[in-house]
Amino acid sequence: MKTNESVNSARGSDAIEFLKEICTPEELSAAEMKAQIVATLIEARTRKGLTQKALAERCGLPQPSLARIESGSSTPRIDTLCRVARALDLVPCLQPKGVWVSIGNSVFGRGLPAKGRPSAKRQMGVSA
């Protein structure tokens, strides 16, 4: 990561630009992956109408631990991520770059140009 001077000079810019300025490309890629995982967990929890407390009880975690995972301030171990995923009826998976997958209303993937990306409707089997 860069110095505190870089952090201070980036204040006021949007979050993505700020991260691009203070992170190496590898750190930014890891942050993007973590953000996608967290967004998927939150979307699944809210879609099921669960509070953090209810989900925490389902997967045997303290609610503050789940809150830290959802806020991005804590990175869960793989076994913890799997417990949360199972409680949400999700299956964690790894896939090659360029493979696009739809989860709820979100389409995730990397490696294809924007014009080559499948639409969310097409991914979910809805005709355009």
Radius of gyration: 17 Å
- List segments where confidence is low: pLDDT < 50 over at least 5 consecutive residues: 1-13, 109-128
Strand content: under 5%
**What is the helix/strand order?**
HHHHHHEEH
Mean pLDDT across every amino acid position: 74
Neighbour order of strands in the largest sheet = 1-2
For the report, how would you describe the main beta sheet?
A: 2 strands, antiparallel
Helix and strand composition category? mainly alpha
CATH class category label of the largest domain = Mainly Alpha
Helix content: 40-55%
Tally of helical runs: 7
Total tally of structural domains: 2
- Could you say what the CATH architecture of the largest domain is? Orthogonal Bundle
Q: The CATH topology of the largest domain, please?
A: 434 Repressor (Amino-terminal Domain)
The CATH superfamily of the largest domain is lambda repressor-like DNA-binding domains
Number of strands: 2
Textual characterization of the structure:
The protein has a two-stranded antiparallel ribbon with strand order 1-2. β1 and β2 (106-108) form a beta hairpin. α4 crosses α5 (63-71) and α4 (52-59) packs across α6. The protein contains seven helices and two strands, in the order ααααααββα. The protein has helices spanning 4-9, 15-22, 25-47, 52-59, 63-71, 78-87, 120-123, and strands at 101-103, 106-108. Mean pLDDT is 74; it is low at 1-13 and 109-128. By secondary structure, the protein is mainly alpha-helical. Helices cover 53% and strands 5% of the residues.
Key phrases:
two-stranded antiparallel ribbon; about 55% helix; disordered C terminus; about 130 residues; mainly alpha; disordered N terminus; 434 Repressor (Amino-terminal Domain); 2 strands
